[in-house]
Amino acid sequence: MSEAAVVLITGGAKRIGAALCRRFHEGGYRVLLHYRHSKDAADALASELNQEAPDSCCCIQADLNTLSGIRQLAESAKRKWGRVDLLINNASSFYPTPIADCNDAQWDDLMGSNAKAPLFLSQALAPTLAKHKGAIINFADIHAEKPMANHSIYNMAKAANVMLTKSLALELAPSIRVNSIAPGAILWPEAGEENASILAKIPLQRCGGEAPICQAAWYLAEQAPYTTGQILAIDGGRSLHM
Fold this sequence. Notes:
By secondary structure, the chain is an alpha/beta fold. The chain has helices at residues 15-26, 39-52, 67-81, 104-131, 152-172, 193-199, 210-222; strands spanning 6-9, 30-35, 57-61, 86-89, 135-139, 177-183, 231-234.
């Protein structure tokens, strides 16, 4: 495994993050699995992957809302195997912030996870990514362009994430490619009437699931050497008429 490429996936313990860890591990990457609070889930996933290939997955805990946490994560990531070839900024807070009662703590959390952390983690890892002609994949949202009601701060944070992707793609070229995935309806936290109303607006008439996101990430990392600064919508066509 000494020459295998290394991917750092933030928020890698659950849901899409865990699926990304499995996909890139299956593709031969060594995985740096970041988590904030989900230690048990992170350890279980790392154990699963290390049983398949010894010393191929390492968990790193960090709070990405602080610069010290971001820098700690970057240093731990570089120290583990001496390189990082791919950064996937998957970690993201998401919840409503109605204008009547939103507050600065919500601002700090949503802007921190969706904009601040991807920026400063990219900054900290740029030298090793450039050395290995690596790539960065961010996670935007289709609502970065067309806002979701009662989610003003989240919408703003994801709009910042889109501009971050384009700005970094310009600034870090030609050594590092930077792209973003903008998911639509992928996984539901729980069933409900609202889910059915959203599905009714999706031309493909179904929830996407984890696989299309993993396929898109693999494409951007491994099969798109002439693609940078792009926002790839994986939304079943929902953004056509939101």
